[in-house]
Specification:
By secondary structure, this protein is of the alpha+beta class. It has a single domain, classed as Pnp Oxidase, Chain A (Roll), CATH 2.30.110.10. The protein is built from four helices and six strands.
């Protein structure tokens, strides 16, 4: 894990899920490596849906390639996330589903209306940025 990720996750955990620049929007995905099978932690912006889940965008800050966690979610769509819930950090089980079509379009518009920088990332990347819906699961 990179030093930046470690610092962001430490701040997130130390401040009950609130971080500078991210507010309460950070989620820490506990993904399983697509190739390694090892646990990987990925802090990403998560936009809440109306049912208590999250939307996450595989932007990699505008890089031309998808982040490693994109491949992890495709290979192992069930995992845990840490998120700010009811004033503290809580860990919940989720299942990830990549969006397409009208669902993608609606989620993209909702996401960029609250976080316009993601349109800049898409323009810089020159690729359609995948969106996953993380839905709470029983485990």
């Amino acid at each position: 894990m990179s030093g930046w990720n470690e610092r962001v996750i430490a701040e997130f955990r130390a401040n009950d899920g609130v971080t500078k620049g991210w507010g309460k929007s950070l989620v820490v995905m506990h993904t399983i490596g697509a190739k390694s099978g090892e646990l990987r932690l990925a802090p990403v912006m998560g936009r809440r849906d109306d049912s208590g889940g999250w939307f996450v965008v595989a932007s990699k800050g505008g890089a031309p390639e998808h982040p490693a966690w994109y491949h992890n979610l495709l290979a192992h769509p069930r995992f845990d996330v840490e998120a700010h819930i009811d004033g503290a950090v809580a860990t919940v089980a989720v299942e990830a589903r990549e969006l397409d079509g009208a669902e993608y379009d609606a989620a993209w518009q909702r996401f960029v209306s609250r976080s316009p920088v993601f349109q800049d990332y898409a323009d810089k990347a020159g690729r359609k940025l995948p969106i996953f819906h993380l839905v709470r699961s029983a485990g």
